[in-house]
Amino acid sequence: MILSHGTLTAPEAHADATRQMLRQIAQATRQETGCQLYLVSENLETPGHFVITEQWASMEDMQTHLALPAVGEAIAAVHGMGITDLTITAWEAGTQTQIM
Amino acid sequence: MILSHGTLTAPEAHADATRQMLRQIAQATRQETGCQLYLVSENLETPGHFVITEQWASMEDMQTHLALPAVGEAIAAVHGMGITDLTITAWEAGTQTQIM
User: Fold this and answer.
1) Is the residue at A18 inside a domain?
2) I need a surface site. Which of A39, A52, B35, B75 has the fewest CB within 10 A?
C-alpha cells in the first residue's frame, strides 16, 4: 500500500478557487482504481495551506492516476494560480500500528 | 521513520473548541523529541472532520509522546466533547518516492 502526503499554499486571492478545485479532484480521484483514500484539508494554523492525504493500493495505481490528462490540467491550474510550493511525497507502507 | 494519519469528527457545538485544541496540541507536539511533522487540518468537504498528519523519527518517539500526561488529557477532552470516532494509524515508512 502507498501512503502519500501533499501540501500546497494558495495566494489569498485564489484560496477559494483552490478549495473548490481540491474538492473536485478528491471526488473524481476517489473513483479511480486503487484509490483507497483521498482527503483534502486546510491547515488549522495557516489558512490557505492545504494538505492532500492519499492512500493507494499500489504505486502502479498512483502512477496511472498521475498520468491522467485531468491531473496534468489540475497541476497546470495550480501553477496558473501562482501556487509554487506544491509538493507530494509517497512511501511504501511498512508495518502498521493501530494507535487508537 | 513513522508516518501517522489520524481523523476525528467534532459535533457542531464543539467544532471551534476542537479547532483550538488541535492547534494547541500541534504547537506543543512539534517541540517534542523526534517529531518531524505535526499538521492539523480540516476536511474541505466535511467541516468538523479533522485530519492529524504526523511524522516521527521512530515509533519509540511516538510512543513517548503518546504516554505524556498532556496527551491523555487531550484524549479525555476529545471524549468529553462527544467525539467518538478518533482513529490514529501509524506505519513504518518504506521506500520513498518524490512525486513532485
Assistant:
1) yes
2) B75
Interface test mutation site (partner A, options B23, B38, B39, max chain A beta carbons within 10 A): B39
Per-residue pLDDT of chain B (100 residues; tens, 9 = 90+): 999 999 999 999 999 999 999 999 999 999 999 999 999 999 999 999 999 999 999 999 999 999 999 999 999 999 999 999 999 999 999 999 999 9
Q: CATH number of the domain that A9 lies in?
A: 3.30.70.100
Reported pTM: 0.97
- Tell me, yes or no, whether B90 lies in a domain: no
SS3 for B31-70 is: CCCCEEEEEEEEECCCCCEEEEEEEECCHHHHHHHHCCHH
Domain containing residue A34: 2-82
Residues of chain A with Cβ-Cβ distance to B83 below 8 Å are none
B90–A99 CB contact, under 8 Å: yes
Q: Is residue A66 part of a domain?
A: yes
ipTM entry? 0.97
Is B88 part of any domain? no
Number of domains in chain B: 1
B13 Cβ under 8 Å from any chain A Cβ: no
